[in-house]
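User: My collaborator sent over this chain with a note saying "see what the structure looks like." That's all I know about it. Can you take a look?
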Amino acid sequence: MRSYHLQPGRGLSGLAIEEHDVPEPGRGQVVVRILASSLGSRDLLVLADEYPLPIRPGVVPGCEGAGQVVAIGADVTTVRPGDRVAATVFPRWIDGPFRRENAGQLGTSIDGMLTEYAVLDENGVVPIPSHLSFEEAAAFPLAAVTAWNSLTAGTAPRPGSTVLTLGSGGVSLFALQFAKLMGARVIITTSGDEKAERLKALGADDVIDYRRNPDWSARVGELTGGEGADLVVDATGPLDQSLKSVALSGELAFVGYRLSGALGSAPVDPGVIFGAGAVIHRIATGSRTHFLELNRAVESARLRPALDRVFGFDEVPEAVEYCKSGAGFGKLVITREAG
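Assistant: Without extra context I'll predict from the sequence alone. Here is the result:
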């Protein structure tokens, strides 16, 4: 078997393929043949050693992947060989609030998904909805779970409510799809007519071009009759505009772009925070329970993710460069031959 290994802070020059024996499962573990994985902006931060969680030198990178169970260890009861599964990003985060002891993450401190076989804890995998391919399933573990947590951390959207989600990255695309499943009206920001049309095709009710409308919170006010959005999913910022866009006593899911509100954002005026009167939820991906919940919704609605491009296992460097370009719309997938 082959695996990519990472020396953090060296970019692509620190990424190399190594060969290993196919692993054996220990007690409570499963071996999964990884047939597809996914890349995104989080992986760029890891490559640059700019991610806030510790990165173990030599770790197998990548936190999103799906495949088929090929072996199980002693005492494993919930999965069996042949099952189609996806990995959870935080294998120890089963349910409840995110705590420091749950911070072990695939692709940083724990070997991740850019490999042909992976050893995972029994509780670190979830079943794949039956209608999804492995490539589609690999798009869900990070962005989709984050979007689901963003929408359900407080009062979940319902028919008649309005959700604003920012940008056309993976989290925002899934937030759009899930909010529409819940019956909400969705406003989304983006740049350019082409992306706007694709967002409308995915179900967006209103699209705001933030380049044409730099003070886009005012446009949100116009679209909502001055009320604002009941829930804002902020994965890109700027946070002050999100706070100006949320309804009084509404909710804001702060996904934590760069986990610090960076990207050139200015400090937020405390008066803006007070004036918003909103509940702010800090979102750190989500738990296994979140993943199981969203999978039930995905299965019921036969929902499929927006995929952009599929690369081969040997084309990871090309996939990283494409991800850096920002040209994509939807998830980037790394596939293996399933024969």
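A starting point for your reply to your collaborator: The chain has two domains: 2-142+286-335, 154-282.
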